[in-house]
TrEMBL record:
Domain ABC transporter: 5-237
CDD domains to which the protein is assigned, alphabetical: ABC_Iron-Siderophores_B12_Hemin
Presence of the UniProt keyword Nucleotide-binding in the record: yes
Molecular function as annotated in GO: ATP binding; ATP hydrolysis activity
Residue ranges of coiled coil: none
Similarity comment: Belongs to the ABC transporter superfamily.
Protein name from the UniProt record: ABC transporter ATP-binding protein
InterPro entries linked: AAA+_ATPase (IPR003593), ABC_transporter-like_ATP-bd (IPR003439), ABC_transporter-like_CS (IPR017871), P-loop_NTPase (IPR027417)
Alphabetical UniProt keywords: ATP-binding, Nucleotide-binding, Transport
Length: 267
């Protein structure tokens, strides 16, 4: 089966600064891909290129075998749903109205919602556990609840690929795990940037590690998150072990002790 998404030697620059350098990888349907790396590594820029929101890149991004630049914005909206770090201002819209926006790529300007549309909205709200808040104003919800509303909107959008930029940013520990467990249970293709490496290891099947715009490693968390590699990328000594409860890899960073090089780590 051909790859759902294929990047080949993707490069992108902002002025004379090279942000992404020769990024190549393939993504198959149903994968949960976490993109990790230090601040400024190019994670969000990579998402923007995947969504054709970053112009003038070189190399290619192909979706279902076709160059991403060959799709119209409406066509891309039917296949990709984006959940950004922070929700845009939505005035005083209700939760139901926000989720209803997922219907827009599939409707004409003056189309009315039918019973099937309303049922899809109700199903999505039920799936994210917010059916009882359908009439609440979006702006009064907690950060975790707002993220779940936006995921419900993506479900109504019927997108094949859910793209999230730091979905756990600014959330407390409970909501971080709640959101990522929800994504894991959706059974669709997910691409997300993740700041917390241990959350990435627990919930992503596959990780891409970026540093200074380059792809350093690509694979299962236990292969990507080697302490020696992370010590070099994050410039801090790193150790790792296995969580006895989840069986997932865990990593720890610390400031170097006197006389210890910051790049030292124990594999």
């Amino acid at each position: 089966m051909p790859a759902l998404i294929k990047l080949d030697k993707l490069n992108w620059s902002a002025g004379d600064k090279h942000i992404l350098k020769d990024i190549s990888f393939e993504l198959n349907k149903g994968e949960i891909l976490g993109i990790i790396g230090p601040n400024g590594a190019g994670k969000t820029s990579l998402l923007n290129c995947l969504l054709n929101q970053q112009k003038a890149f070189t190399g290619s991004v192909r979706f279902k075998g076709k160059n991403i630049t060959g799709y119209s914005p409406r066509e891309l909206a039917k296949s990709f749903a984006l959940v950004a770090q922070k929700a845009a201002p939505v005035f005083n819209l209700s939760v139901f109205d926000i989720v209803r926006m997922g219907l827009l790529p599939h409707k004409n300007l003056f189309s009315l919602d039918n019973d099937f549309d309303k049922h899809q909205i109700e199903l999505a709200l039920d799936k994210v556990g917010l059916a009882d808040k359908r009439h609440d104003s979006f702006h009064i919800l907690s950060g975790g609840e707002q993220q779940r509303v936006l995921i419900a909107r993506a479900l109504v959008q019927k997108a094949e690929i859910l793209v999230l930029d730091e979905p756990t940013n600014h959330l407390d520990v409970y909501y971080q795990h709640q959101i990522l467990a929800l994504l894991q249970g959706l059974k669709i293709t997910v691409i997300m940037t993740v700041h917390d490496l241990n959350l990435a290891a627990q919930y992503c099947r596959r990780l891409l590690l970026l540093d200074q715009g380059q792809l350093i490693a690509d694979g299962a968390p236990e292969n990507v998150l080697s302490s020696s590699r992370l010590s070099k990328v994050f410039r801090l000594p790193c150790q790792q072990d296995t969580d006895p409860l989840t069986g997932k890899i865990r990593v720890y960073f610390h400031l170097p002790r006197r006389g210890q090089d910051a790049g030292e780590g124990r594999a």
